[in-house]
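Hi P.,

Sorry for the delay on this. The queue was packed all week, but I finally got your sequence through. Input first:
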Amino acid sequence: MGKLLTDAQVAHFDQQGYLPAIPVLTPDQARHFRGELERCERQFPDQMRKLRSKSEVLAPWIVDIAKTPRLLDAFEDLLGPDLLLWSMAWRVKKNDGQTFAGWHQDFAYGGVLKPKVVIGALALSECGPEQGCLRVIPGSHIGDPLPHQDFDDPTSILARGQQISVPFDKSQAFDLALRPGEIGLFDSAVIHGSAPNTSQDRRIMVLVEIIPAAAYRTDGLEDTAMLVRGKDEHRNFAPEPHPDADFSPAAQEAWNEIIQIRSKMIYRNSTVKPADGYQGAASAA
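Then the structure:
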């Protein structure tokens, strides 16, 4: 028995590559953090694109989400006591009946990190089938990544509009439905996607990407992360600074530098240009 997860839940994650809804925020906390997002949308409307990746360096309240004790307990049960935040990536889906995410595997384009990356889909609004919740293919994290193809599609919520380009079995697809304050966990190798939002509200979700401090990149690329629990004796990732204030000049300067590193990784060998939210002061090569 771990801090939050049962032995059966840990075994399910290892075998199936995901875990369904786990409460990690109270309803009041979920409302509070949604309110912080909406406050920033009003106060910094031109900066919201930056929340798509590495948002932890832009606002202290985003770090507060990542350091929520119950949230980190769930990750610790899967990854051990020393945890690095790889990215806080916001996925706010309009209720336009159009925006979607094609079937994909994150490690197919974000690079392979060992031993593994665990991603948490944390809901700050209702995230069910009507809202276009994540869907996962159980057990698809085993083996090598499938071939993907990039699409310059404005209705795709994904950085490269990427989709798996070969047939695969979708018959066991599972809806990762979430209530506000719940998190669904999945291995970065699991096949996942999402349908359009046809509800009356936005789907507000943040992807919490966590790695153990012992993790390393197999491709040798430069990378960054923020220590959120325990200690980092390995130093395989350059440490990210904590933001001093919401979207302060120092925070935005740090984001510009860090997103250049992230963008070069995400868009390596891509056929499309870096999307809005993956560009700093200058476009990544």
